[in-house]
Amino acid sequence: MPKKNTQAFIAILLLFVLALLTVFPINVGLLGGKGVLLGLDLQGGTHIVYQADLSSIEPSGETDAIEGVMAVLSNRINPMGVTEPVIQKKGSNRILVELPGRDITDKEKESLSSVALLEFGELVAEDEDAKWENELGRWRPATAVMDGVIKTLNSSYFKENTFANRDNFGNILLIFEWNEEGSKLSEEITSRMLGQRLGIFEGAEPLRGEGGLPIAPTVQAVITNSGQITGLSWDEATRLSQQLNAGRLPVSLKIIEDEIVSPVLGAKFVDMSVKAGIIGIALVMLFMSLYYRLPGLIASLSLIFYGTLVMALFKIMSISLTLAGIGGFVLSIGMAVDANVLIFERMKEELQTGRTLGAAINAGFNRAWTAIKDSNITTFIVCGILYWVGSSITNGAPVMGFALTLFIGVAVSMFTAIFVTRTLLYLFVGTRLTQKTNLFSPFLRRKR
Question: Which domains, ranges and CATH numbers included, belong to the chain?
Answer without folding.
Answer: 3-34+265-440 (1.20.1640.10), 45-114+256-261 (3.30.70.3400), 118-248 (3.30.1360.200)
